[in-house]
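User: Can you predict the 3D structure of Trafficking protein particle complex subunit 2-like protein? Sequence below.
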Amino acid sequence: IPVSVICFPQQNYPLYIRSIPTENELKFHYTVHTSLDVVDEKISAMGKALVDQRELYLGLLYPTEDYKVYGYVTNSKVKFVMVVDSSNTALRDNEIRSMFRKLHNSYTDIMCNPFYNPGDRIHSRAFDNMVNSMMMQVC
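Assistant: Sure. Here are the predicted structure tokens for Trafficking protein particle complex subunit 2-like protein:
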């Protein structure tokens, strides 16, 4: 089952990309970049409510024939996008929400590292392990 996790800062360049299987990575890039427009639309539609809101899960951004694209935004406007196979009907909304929370917590740990420069690509073994375990859970 294909899964992809990508993190974007406000400037919309990827900080972290992980795909299983890796041969469809270019297709995932295209899918995710098109979903960023939907993320921006949802954020602007929420407007002030998003600032006051603790829940930053955007839900299903859009389904395609093959994939479902989900989104999440942090308070600092870092976007997480997850692409899962449409045929995976066992995956519920609360499980996706929980995975985004884990992703956000791991991202926060990276930001707290004094040796990490914000805006650099993420190269962290702990973050990789967390994403890999999350992806194996989905597959």
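The mean pLDDT is 81. Residues 20 and 136 are 9 Å apart (CA to CA).
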